[in-house]
Structures are given as structure tokens and as C-alpha cells.
Amino acid sequence: MVLNFPDSAEKLALLQTRRYRVCGIVQGVGFRPFVHRLARTHRITGWVLNDSEGVLLELQAPSDAIKNFITELELDPPPLAKIIDVFEVQIDEIAPNYHSFDIRKSQDLANMNTIIPPDSNVCEDCLREMRDPGDRRYRYAFINCTNCGPRYSIILGMPYDRSKSTMRAFAMCPECNREYIDIEDRRYHAQPNACQSCGPHLQLTDKAGNSIITDDVVRYVISRLREGAIVAIKSLGGFHLVVDASNEAAVRELRRRKHRDAKPFAVMVANTLSAASWVLINQHDEELLESVQRPIVLLRKHPTAISLLEEIAPRNPNLGVMLPSTPLQHLLLEDPALPVLVMTSGNLSGHPIVFENPIAIEQLGEIADYFVLNDRDIRTRIDDSVVRGIVLEGKNVPQVFFLRRSRGFAPYPIHLPYSVGSVIALGAELKTTVSISKGKQVFISQHIGDLKNDATFRSHIDCARHMQELLGVKAGTLACDLHPAFRSTRNAIEQSEIRVVQVQHHHAHMVSCMAENGLSGQTIGVVFDGTGYGTDGTIWGGEFLLGDAEGFTRVGHLRPMLLLGGDKAVEEPIRIAISLLVEAFGENLTKIDIPAINALSEQRREIFSKMAIKKINSPTTSSMGRLFDGISSLMGICTEVEYEGQAAIEMEALLQRDFHMARPLEYIVENNEGCLVVDYRPLIRELAHQLSQPIPDISELSRRFHSTVVDIICEVCLRLIKQFGIKQIVLSGGVFCNEFILVNTLNSLEAHGIKPYFHQLVPTNDGGISLGQVVVAAAQVKRETQHNNGD
To answer: Is 32 known to be catalytic?
Structure first.
């Protein structure tokens, strides 16, 4: 379709012709029709097309009209578009006088350099149609348009087109096809476009996969949920397990069947008004919940709902809340008698989320009573994203903080101020992601999970391959962790045809934070987490590093402690508690009178004590995460864990998201041959004394320990700044998922005139590791290339 404008002498005299390049998420999101309509509004002639770099457009009009056009294009693009850059391109040839504005055929799409569009929630226009009895898509569970719906999860290849998506299995009916080819329709080139006649359909089965015939699948499921049933529902990126959140018996049964006794569940509510009945919510929280990405948002439980929510999120002041993102989810919440649903990932413990129908029935048949399937295949499994808004002193707008970056955000790239070439990074062993660089962009995959089983590892390998194909990248460098036992590391080293760079875990953490904040040069990195293989062969995790992408020096760390029984100590942190007591008091523990220790059988206490004293099967670690585990166990908060970080999370929960600092416990910072070592033994002795009192205040002791960690960070950083004259500080690692630690560290350092940097674009936990691996590997390759060239 073209736009024709009449010529006039005055118009021809004022005409200018300019060409512009638009980069970002600008394909598959209705960008060309948007440009077409905008040109009509501003009475501009010329053309627009897709090519391998994004969108190219040539405008012919008076300069004011072109200026206004570009301003409006940048300020108000289509809902799913994300413009990274708009710049003018030189026109080498003489431009003709255009009499219309055309959408030209796409050019040079063999080598794509555009951004893969993430999946999006269903838009308001589609919801209105879905709820309109007179609309042909009334109650259609797969309604979508150019402004919403599945993207990354269904894409088979690029450029993004129906024939290169799982929607190729469905031939559009005449009515849908008319919408698809009409540039004035909002479904113009909406690749998942479909309706009841030609598109995907819901399928209902029992737990064995036998079909259940019903007039209305959704209403049947709502009735079963109200009766207490557990339903596995295929969503946009995989299966959810769903129960009525207000039915405590149903929630308990879900926990029993899924073998998930303590880990919190997330819930889904219809809207923010409904959410306000369960959690405390402010305007920024509403914006996060209602954003097109529809993440799970961690919010504080409403005081009137704490007891009701204990079964859903035990021993935790927070509740993960999300709003519906798919048409089916909106339909499930249409019954006022079912206002809140538990919506948790459909997977076996430790395995990736299930996304294929037969495997779902096979794996989840012992958990779910019913299955809601559909015949639209998912190409890429994608979990829900998890975020939190944090408020810092002197900041009017809360900062977004990722705990899991997945649906709605992946595989959107991080933009760097420098090129890192083409590198593939395999991430960490836990909470892993894959990153692939292309020039100044690093594309980060969705959350994949923990590489502890074959299924997750296969998903990891498939993700790396699929992203390379979508991005048209054939990298010459493969980055992985330094740990020799990691599956991804072993697999990488076996790749004989590609260069492999092993990156130390905490160095990757530090550089990841530097990269997303656009930093370079010498930096102090405070990296606190649970586990990372150190350059000396021991397990690190309470580290102060000095360096940049090219290398680092370990300039400070936590005094090492023992992990009695190795990994067993991570599952039973009471073992760490015993080792801390032996470190603090020596061999004689007979006079230690602490309830958590007294609760141990005499035999276990004796065995653990001997292991610590004689260092039997007890590797050392400098991990701050393990110190948290040991202190939590010592206080009797959590002596055995079901999920990663549980001991620390439950200890932080006692603070009730109240960030006021308390008097720190005692500790010592020693200079050991130029390296600052934080000696925690004084605080163990002080804690032991307090815990031996008749009624110790566990909440206050938790606050004092948290405040001590903040004090340690500030004390060591100030000493390092004085010693090295470097004020650029980054904070990274899973310990900084702790809101109290992060907020108070930022506030305390800024009170000393220091601006610390933290993660806001990728998770501070191991989900952000792959970004740092890319940058470190690229720096190493660059350095070696310069050396070989004699530079």
C-alpha cells in the first residue's frame, strides 16, 4: 500500500531528502506499519524497509516535518518496539521526487543483525475482543496481534516470519489472512495471528493423558480448581502447576506431591486491585506488575494476609505476585470466587520447566490431576522472570532488581560501549544462562537452571546452539567457568575446533557488573556468594578483588572455614555451625550451651566436632554465603535446607524488610602479606554468648549480623581505597540478593562519598555470570592478538 500526496511548487521548493537507520527491536513488532501511519500524519513521502541491520527509511519533506517525525518516532514507538538508536545515513545517489510513501520489500536478510523480540503479555485491545460476545475471537485462548503475544518462545529461525515459527503448522483462514495483509489492521504481519477456525486449540486430559470432552475447557478447569484439584497448564513458555491459593489443603497437597516443603510459591491475581488484598503495593510496584513483560514481583505480604499466606510462602515476609500474561490466564481468573491462584513452574525438582505435551504427562502425571494442553508447539522453554523494586536513599524512583531474567526480557541484549567480537559464554553451574556477543551487544538467554541433570544440560546446549542460529553468530571463542568439575566446563574443553577461555567465577561476577554499568579501568569488586572455584584450587565466596576485564588480584577475603562433608554441609548447615564454633573456641566445645547445638544427638555432635578438629573430609571455603548458612543454623533458624539460599533467606526474613542498621558484632580485619583477611571468630564468640542466654532475641541478632556484613564491606573498601587510590567499586554475587545488605551497603558507601555500582540489567546471582565471561574472554583474546602482532 502507498500514500500519495499532491505536488505543489511551494512543497517542491522546501523538500529535503534524508535517510535514517533505526536499530533495536524493530522487526516483528509492527514497526513498518507504524512508520507508514506516521508518514501519513506528517505528510511525508519516501519509503521504509527491513534489512539485516534493522529498519531503514528515507523521508522526503520539509525539514520541520522530518524533525517532528523523528521526534515522535523515538518518543512513541509501537508497544513491543525498543529503539536503541536512530541516526542519519548518508545518501550517495541522487534521490528522486517521491510521490508516495511505500513499504518496500525487505533486503539483505541473510546476515541478521536485528534483535530477537521477547515474548509479551496480551494487549488491552485483544482482551476487549476476547471478552466481547459479538467478536469472532470471543473467549479465544490464543488471541494476539502485532502488539502482543508469543515471540522468542515460538521462533525457529530469523528473520522472524510465520514460516520460521511454530505457527507454520496452522494455515490462516481467509479472515485472518485479510487482517495479516492489511497494513491498516493491527494484525498486519502478526506472525502468530489465528482464530477459532484456523489456530491452536485447548485440549483437556486427565492425569494419564486421556481426553476429557467438555463444552468449555476453561470453565471446567475453574470448577475443578475450586474443588481443590491440581492442574498442569501449558502456558507461553512451558507448563505451570496451578491450584486455588486460598485452599490451604490444595496448597499442602501440591507441596507434598512436588516434594517442595519450604520453597515459596508465586501467585497470580487478576489485577493490581486484587493484589492489594494480599500484598502491600505502591505505584512503582503496579508499574512493574502491569509492564508488558509481566514478571513475578516480590512484594511484602499484607499484614492482614500473613497467616493466610504462610502455606504459600512459609517463613518469608515476601510473596511473589504476577498478573496474567496470556489470554488463557485472564480467562482462568474471570471467576470472582477464584481470585488468586498458585502458579508455579511445572517441573520435577531440579529439572527444567516442561514444555512438551507428552513429556508433561510423563513427568507431571504424579503431581497433576488434570492437564490443559494445546497444539501450538513451544520452541524455547522460558520460565517466569522474577524482579523486585528497591528504594535507595535520595532516589525518588525505585530501582528494578532482577532475581531471574527470563520471559519478557530474554534474549534482549546488554549494550556495551566497546566491541567484544563474537564470544559464546556458558555461564555457571547454578542458575545458568548463555550469553552470545555480537560486536557491542551481548545477548543473554533466558534462565536455564542448575546443570545437575541431563535434561537441564541438554537444554543448556540447545539454547547455545539455537541462539547462535538466530543471531547468525559463529563465534571463535568459547568462555566457561574455571571449575574443572562443571559439566559446561568439561564440555567446553572437549571442543577442539574453537578456542576456550576459562574465567574465574568471581572475576566474571565483577566484570559482569562493570559491563552492564559501562565501566572500564581498575575497579574494586566486592563479590559475595556461595561457591566459586578459586585460582588456588579452594572454594571462594567472600572476595574483594582489584582489577578489570584483563585480570585481577585478590586483595581481600573472608577467613576460610570448613565444610564438614563437603557438599553435605550445604544441605545441612548445622555442620558449618559446628565448624565455626571449632574455629572460634578450639577443640573444647563441652561448655557451649546453644539450643541449636544441644538439639543435635550426642553422636552427630561428636562426629562433626572430630571432623572439624581433624579436618576430615572438610574442604575450606571463604564463602560469605556459607557463613550466612552457618550463622542461620547456629541461631536455630534453618539447620537443613531444601533449596539454595534457604538458610540466609529465612534469616533475612526476620528483618521484615526493615532496613535500619544495628550495632555490628565484633570482627577483625588483618593484613596478611598485603591481602586483607576478615576474621569472623570474634563475632562467633559474641553470638555464642548471646545465644546461650535464657531468651535470646533472634531477630535482633540477625539484624546485628546483617549490619556486621555491611560494616565489613565498608571497612575493607575504605582501606582498599586508601591503599590503591581507586574509588570505582562494584557489588556482585548472590549475597547481594539480600535486600538489607544491598541497600545498606549502597547507602553506607555513598555516605562516605563513594558511588558504588550494582546490577540492574542482569541478576547479581549466577544468572549474570555469562555476561562477565564474555567480556573477560574477549579481553584475553584481544590482549593475545596484540601480543602476537607485536603491539
So the answer is: yes
